């Protein structure tokens, strides 16, 4: 009997998940790609991977050591 209840519970969760996925608004891949391209082009000037990080504000730069001559 518990096997039947477990199966029934599993099927209910599956149906709820499928209902949730069916209700998601979808757009065409071409539209999504176009919007992503526009976003990337609009924000390219702010992207540190494209324009680099100013030396003074780079938290990952190697620490400078002071050498006494």
Automatic annotation (TrEMBL):
> What's this protein's function?
Guanine nucleotide-binding proteins (G proteins) are involved as a modulator or transducer in various transmembrane signaling systems. The beta and gamma chains are required for the GTPase activity, for replacement of GDP by GTP, and for G protein-effector interaction.
* Molecular-function annotations in GO: G-protein beta-subunit binding
Q: What is the recorded name of this protein?
A: Guanine nucleotide-binding protein subunit gamma
The G protein gamma domain covers: 4-69
* Listed Gene3D superfamilies: Transducin (heterotrimeric G protein), gamma chain (4.10.260.10)
Primary subcellular site in the record, as a coarse category: membrane
**Subcellular locations according to the entry:** Cell membrane
Which Gene Ontology cellular component terms are annotated?
heterotrimeric G-protein complex
Which family does the similarity line name?
Answer: Belongs to the G protein gamma family.
The subunit structure is:
G proteins are composed of 3 units; alpha, beta and gamma.
Species annotation: Muraenolepis orangiensis
Gene Ontology biological process terms, A to Z: G protein-coupled receptor signaling pathway
Tell me which UniProt keywords the record has, alphabetically.
Cell membrane, Lipoprotein, Membrane, Methylation, Prenylation, Transducer
Q: Which domain of life is it from?
A: Eukaryota
Membrane topology per record: Lipid-anchor
Signal peptide per UniProt: none
**Pfam families linked to this entry:** G-gamma
